[in-house]
Amino acid sequence: MNIRHKLTQYKSRVLSRLGLILGNAARKPGPIDRAGKNWRIWLNMDLSEVLAGIFSKLNKSSLHAGFRVNNLEGWPLWFRSTVLFLLFVSGFAVIAHPVWTSALSELDYLNAESQVRKARYRHLAMESALLEQNRDRVSVLAVRFGEMLEMIPAELEVVQVLNHFSQIARESGMQLEWFKPETEIQEESYAILPINMRLSGSFPEAARFLEAVSSMKHLVTVDVILESVGSVPGKIILSARVRAYRGDTPRSMVAPAKAVGDVDATY
Length: 267
Hints:
single chain, alpha+beta, Alpha-Beta Plaits, five-stranded antiparallel β-sheet
């Protein structure tokens, strides 16, 4: 019985509170409800209606006696100054933005160009400082190249080269097995006569042969391949590719006359 009585009391309390809530909802809406409805009204308006509503609110406000938005002469001085200032700033920003962007791009380009020209100027200044030294070096190289070309005979026949190497081979103890010259190669100021030859002998004889070739009067270069003969102990085969040079000293490489006060450079 007690439990049934308590449930009945709890039910009556819930119903009474629900009735109070429903009664309050049926009353006139308060400021919060009116504000919510006003916002919903503003959201349903288009742009012209919104502007008209704002001007209407400003006209009804009491900012200044006789102030009307549509009456420019009635605007207070501070309000007109503020509006003009805002309009000026907005117009200036719109006009200056592309000009400012273009000026910044031009400034970046000029800075990059300035860095490139500075680097180029430093490089040219360095080359200018080394100009006299390079001239002295070129003069010395011209003299040395001319001296080297003087070692090359103006005329060189295959028979002469064959006689030279045959004599050196006999003196060193080597046996010249075959001698094969190739076509002469013409360069700008000299010519090269490639020759392939094959000699046989011992290691001491090959050493004497190469020593004699290195002390030849004429300028030659030699590429050597040594092969041992398995059937004969101590015997080797020397395959050589010789390049004999000939030519005259070109006029462009003749050393210029030394002026008074010049100093010879030594390397």
